Every structure is written in structure tokens, then in C-alpha cells.
Amino acid sequence: MKKVKLGIIGVGNIGTTHVKNITEGRCPELEITAVADRREERREWVRGVLPAGAAVFEEGEALLQSGLCEAVLIAVPHYQHPVLAQAAFRQGLHVMCEKPAGVYTKAVAEMNEAAEKSGLTFGMMFNQRTNCLYRKMREMVQGDELGDLKRVNWIITDWYRTQIYYDSGDWRATWAGEGGGVLLNQCPHQLDLLQWICGLPVKVQAFCHEGKWHDIEVEDDVTAYLEFANGATGVFVTTTGDAPGTNRFEVTGTKGKLVCENDTLSFWKLQEDEREFCRSAKEGFQKPPCEMVPVETDGENPQHAGVLNAFAARILRGEPLVAEGKEGIRGLTLSNAMHLSSWLEKPVEIPFDEELFFQELNKRRASSRRKEGGNITFSTEGSY
Prior knowledge:
Number of helices: 12
Distance between the termini: 31 Å
Number of domains: 2
CATH architecture of the largest domain: 2-Layer Sandwich
Structural class: alpha/beta
Strand order of the largest sheet: 14-13-12-11-7-10-9-8-15
Oligomer: single chain
């Protein structure tokens, strides 16, 4: 079997998961030929799990220039995603980028342009798109089973994190090192899914509370109001401070409502379009007849391994990716808009002023505090 020679840059929390998926046989068309990480303890760990011939580097640039790889997986702090991706394209390497695509859309747009010019495979690690529940939601919403979009509500507050999590890296939860908090670290998957299923809003007003529940300088509690082009509205609520938390995603249309919660997808189907019923009903308190309809899915949810297997299949046989790399800018657009709205204390329209966002971000980077120590790696098992 032909295998893609893969390099991995960054073997922290999520990079370790990727290494294990490949070395434990869940990605049969990939072989790790090189790894890079700046921390000696992580390089020591990876030497113990990789085949004897795999190279281990301190710097990602050295890996990219080594000639040992056909493709690279980038799993480093967020600011470096567009930088390393563009460097990889210059070396003729296919790229799989961890979420988020970057910290600000201006840099990600440049990365997307470089990818387009290169003609190489470029994928984003949006592993939640492999979840059968979200794939079915997209199918139903895009296929008009819900009618016209009316309301989108997502409460995603089961991201609970302790203080030691935030203290585990000198870059983590700082404007200079990470570029944001719960919106940029935990929620890129949900923001991607929201726009993938329902489309991008055209206006956002957000309230991002910085260091509300932890000793950090970035946001750990967010409530955002969304408006869509057709007049539909929504609310997005997230935090890393709630225990127990909630993960409930509701999409309401003129023909019914979808609810995804507790690994179950429920569909309340109206017998008649609500708009038509509203105009024709003869009783003031009458409600449109509704029934709970079972939702069948294929049951598949391959997650990170599924994204990597599709990446290898694209390189080897031209098969579809789970998520094209260029799509990473869409969820980031949503988080950037939320940040900018909160900073300016007013609604922000999408597309927003990218230069203004960059200026406001740089104000916060300039005053970002330097953290000492840390560099602890945790298991990601059981997280998203």
C-alpha cells in the first residue's frame, strides 16, 4: 500500500493525538517520517513512539526543508498556522492545518491565496464535520426540510477548564501568544459548524468577558447575538467556566425545529409551513400541528482519524476532503467579528473592517503579559 510521508509540527495536546492515531494504525495511508517540536521532553517522547527511521527536529522550518515529507500537519500555537502553511507550500508540501486557521482573517486570506497558487492539497482539521449528527443537520437545513431559517441558538458551555490548563503553556490564554480565548481555542469547531450548516450571519453583537472565571487576559465567557441575511436571528453562548455545562444546538425554520443535544438529533416537524399557518389560522391561540419525526443517520463519527484519512485519499487519489483549507476563514470571520464587536461595544457587520480588527488586536498584544514556566502536555481524550 502506498503511503503519504507526513511530517507533524507540534506534538502538544492535539499533536500527540494525531501521532497516536497514525502510529496505532487508524490512518493506514499515512506514515510519519518527521516530527518537530521546540520542547525537548516532547521530542524525547516522540522518539519513543515513532519508527527508528523517523527524523525529529527542534524547528518546524527545518522539517519543511528536510525533503523527508510529502505533506505536513501543523499543530502549533495559532499565530504560526498561516506562517508555516505558506512556508510548506513554498517547499511543495501538502498541508493539513489544525484549527483555527489563524488568529486574524487578514493573515488567513494570504495563506489561502498561497494555497490556491500552489495547486497543492490544503485541508483544515474540522473533525466535528465527520459527526453524523452535524452532517445530517446540514443535509436537512440545506435541503429545505426546515423551510426558511428563523432562529439559530447554540449553548456550548461544556468546555470547562481549570486554572492549571491555562497555566500549562507560556503562550496559552494570552493575546500575544494565542490571540484569543474560548472563541479561538475551544469554539472554532462550533463556529465552523454554525456557518457550515446555517450560513454566515451578516451582523454580530457580542459581549466577550475577559478573565471572568480564570486568571487570564483573554475571553472565557461569551454571549453573542447574530443576524442573518434573510432576517433570521440567533444566539451563541459559550464559556470555559460552567460546570456542569451544556451543549445544545437548535435550528428553527418555518417547517420545524432541529435540536442536537446529548448525542441525539431530534426533529419536530410542522404539518404546515408556519408562515402559511399564521396567515390562515381562524383561532388566535391555535398552534400548527407538530410531530416528532425520527432522524436516521449513518452512525459514523471518525473524528480526527477520519479527517486525516480523507487528507491522504485526496493526495493519493483526488478524493474529497472533510474540509477544504480555504474554508477555515469563515468560522474565523465569525470569531473576529465577535471580538471586534465586544471591543468596540457595538454591532459589527460582516464583512468587517479587517484592518481595524488588526489594529485593535495589536493594542492587546502590545500590553499582553509574559507568562513564565508551564509547557505541560495533557491528554485530549474525551474532549472535542
